[in-house]
Amino acid sequence: MSDDAAKPEDRYARQVAYHAIGAAGQAKLSSSTALIVGLGALGSVIAETLARAGVGHLRIVDRDFLEWNNLQRQVLYTERQVRDRLPKAVAAEQRLRAINSDVHIEAHVADVDYRNIEELVAGVDVIIDGTDNFGVRFLLNDASLKLGVPWIYGGCVGAEGRMMVILPRETPCFRCLMPEPPPAEMTPTCDTAGVVAPIVNVIASLEALEAIKLLSGNRDAVQRDLVVVDLWENRWRQIKLDNLRDNADCPACGQQQYEWLRGDLGGQSTVLCGRNAVQISFPDRPAVSLEALAEKLTGVGRVEKNPYLLRLHVDEYVLTIFPDGRAIIAGTTEPSVARTLYSRYVGG
């Protein structure tokens, strides 16, 4: 800490003054590690809140890059970062370091899947959901149960949001609540229903508060109901989940069948919420040289490149390729079209 930096007793004075936290709780926060998966609308609010609260180590993960439509609700980012075409994890790391230099920020530009989730969860005290993807949530649920790490689910669309805390072997798990992902045609998204920024802030704040309770040693205060909020209709509900506890029929917590964690369920193509885009990934593909790919694509279309990604504009599509071979294909919501474009311009 530099000589002119704020002392912890000054920075966190108002938080320490709260009776349930105090100096002991603040010390626990400073020695804790939180994993935030997804740094979009929810994740950006969560990450900033926990950095300001003094959680000592934030491991942040996101697969995506910044676009202009993010700024309406993703409060952590700036216009300059959008212009620089930064991955969200890199942009978040920059901003969080500027907010609180005492917090260790560990950023990963990565697609969370069954191959890397256990490594990401290793050593953390809580997992916090900032995603917009049910497949990732089922994966987080499996990892949480297997490794015994609490996780906090949150989601919102339109003006409605939901939040639930999963404490392994204490509360019902996410799969008790939702045994399978809902059919895509029955699930509203920010593409079809839109989203208003205030519901994002409410749900993200609820998630962050539950994390602070856990990390400060206040486990007994943790919310154990499903919270459902509709800001537009001015409704706030807490739904008891006691009847789901000890559900022997649950494949995850009842039978310890971690199908998502094994890779038995889930796929490598994901339609991205609100983006008219598809992400595709290849589990066994070797790393891609962005420099060599840029040279290869000379004359094909307009190419933009920075150390983190390459972007090709061709016809009505935009292909964004990452060094791990993963790509986001904008201009379509059809996985088959996305895979064809990838094969045509990238190869494989």
Q: How many strands appear in the DSSP assignment?
A: 14
Q: Sheet with the most strands?
A: 8 strands, mixed
Order the strands across the largest sheet as they lie in space.
3-2-1-4-5-6-7-8
Radius of gyration: 20 Å
Q: Hey, roughly how much beta strand do the residues contain?
A: 15-25%
In the CATH hierarchy, what is the architecture of the largest domain at level 2? 3-Layer(aba) Sandwich
The CATH topology name of the largest domain reads Rossmann fold
H and E string: HHHEHEHHEHEHEEHHEEHEEHEEEEH
The poorly predicted ranges are: none
Number of helical regions: 13
Q: In angstroms, what separates the terminal alpha carbons?
A: 49 Å
What is the helical fraction, as a range of percent?
Answer: 25-40%
- Total domain modules: 2
CATH superfamily name of the largest domain? NAD(P)-binding Rossmann-like Domain
- Please state the overall shape, judged from the principal axes of the Cα atoms: globular
Structural class: alpha/beta
Q: What's the CATH C level of the largest domain?
A: Alpha Beta
Could you report the average pLDDT, rounded to the nearest whole number?
90
Question: What would you say this structure looks like, in words?
Answer:
The protein is α/β, with parallel strands linked by helices. The protein has two domains: about 10-260, Rossmann fold (3-Layer(aba) Sandwich), CATH 3.40.50.720; about 270-345, TATA-Binding Protein (2-Layer Sandwich). The chain is about 30% helix and about 20% strand. It has helices at about 10, 15, 20-30, 40-55, 80-85, 90-100, 115-120, 135-145, 175, 195-215, 260, 290-295, 335-345; strands at about 35, 55-60, 105-110, 125-130, 150-155, 160-165, 225-230, 235-240, 270, 275-280, 300-305, 310-315, 315-320, 325-330. The strands form two sheets. An eight-stranded mixed sheet has the order 3-2-1-4-5-6-7-8, with helices on both faces.
